[in-house]
Amino acid sequence: MKKFFFLLLLFVGLTAKANYWTPNPYQYQNNMTVIGVVSFNGVEQKSDMLEIGAFCEGECRGSVITQYEEVFDRSYVFLMIYGEYNDSITFRCYDHNRNMELEMIPESHLLFQANAMIGGVVDPFVFSFQSYKHNVSIELSPEATATVVGGGEYNQYDTCYVQITPNQGFQFDALTENGDTLTKQPNYSFIVMSDRNLVAHLSEMPIYYQVTAEITPDAAGTVSGLGEYLEGETCTLQITPNSGYDYVGLYENDELVTTENSFTFEVNSDRHFKVEFLIQINYYQVSAEINPSEAGSISGLGAYQEGETCTLEVTANEGYTFVALKENDEVVSEENTYSFVVESDRYFSADFVLNEYTVTLSANPEEGGTLSGGGIYSHGSTVYAIAIPNENYSFENWTKDGIVISSNPQYVFEVTEPVELVAHFEYHDDVEEVTDNIMVVYPNPASDYIKVNGLVKKTDATIYDLTGKIILKKSLSLDDNEMDISDIHSGTYIMIIDNNSYKIIIN
Hints:
Largest sheet: 7 strands, mixed
Helix content: under 10%
Number of helices: 2
Radius of gyration: 52 Å
Structural class: mainly beta
CATH superfamily of the largest domain: Immunoglobulins
CATH class of the largest domain: Mainly Beta
Number of strands: 51
Shape: elongated
Strand content: over 45%
């Protein structure tokens, strides 16, 4: 009984807020107590603005507003119900925030029991309600002109947020329902109370372009017709020089458009022009030649107004080095950049030299053989590096920076930088090991012919001078093993046969 009176006092304390429903407690002799929580769609509610009403056949048998208890972090219903034995009690919910009774489907009911207490603070009874479902549809007009967010199924009283994002080239006009305009903003929200059929209206976005112009020099003239144009409109520019200036031309992207004072065109993109005028003063030409012609280039040449500053930039092509800029055979500058004030026609010559590189050849071991082809070469020259093994040595390979680049005693390449090559030879204790299967070249020295013995197949034989130039080449075989050298000048030469090198002397 003490617990009952405590709860009764608590109910009295909770009725400070005016209830929407008012039962008549004096009409019935019996009562029962229900302690519970409110659940919407399976989610427990935390609110002190919900009122739960108990009803039997439409008559209010009890009503109370939820009370939030901070200790338990829950909102409780302390409801006293009046009635008679086995009365069927159903429940309704009123929202004091919205000032309306919620249209929801009650899932909880009780049979009245006199002096009963149902639920508790720890294990409360659940006043369960389910929302009605509503569908929100959003149609695009015309179709496929935007991305729409917000359509779908909602619980009643949910908030629907509609967002329309137009596709490129389209603009949002209005959101309507049954022909009535709801908003002209692409974002719209509302409480869902029923099915809604919305239409998002869009239209093609008009495209405008800007026509602008720059006047050179400033205040030299005027241009009418500039401004904003709708795509497809016709623009007419009218150019008028100011006093003391002559109109030169209308340019776009550094390309001459017209020298006429009037220019008409259809606007289909942004257009930016440059209108050039000339004050009535002298112009001079700055020109130059390249020596040799393929060695490089010069920027900054052309026509200059008297008093303007010209800056020449000299650039050497690959394999060349800039030497000097000359005028009348006098050196003007040895720097790649030269600036001056133009006061007359100027004619320059830019001199370049072809780069030269050192080709260094070395033998490993040093006594392993003799080398030819080293020296100083111009850029792009062909180098014939030839390795001739000494007695008891055989040639192995050429290396550059420790990497094998050729196993041929003659290595031919085009020089574009300084090069250091190493010819590797291998020493043999047994002379027969070196001479086995090696062809014999005789006579040596020779004057009229040279023969090659030991050929086992058809093989090319090539005679080079010590600069690497080919002097004579012939295909030899077992049946034809002789080369006529009667027309070759006396001297020392190199013969290459099947990757083997031989030094020969011709008298």
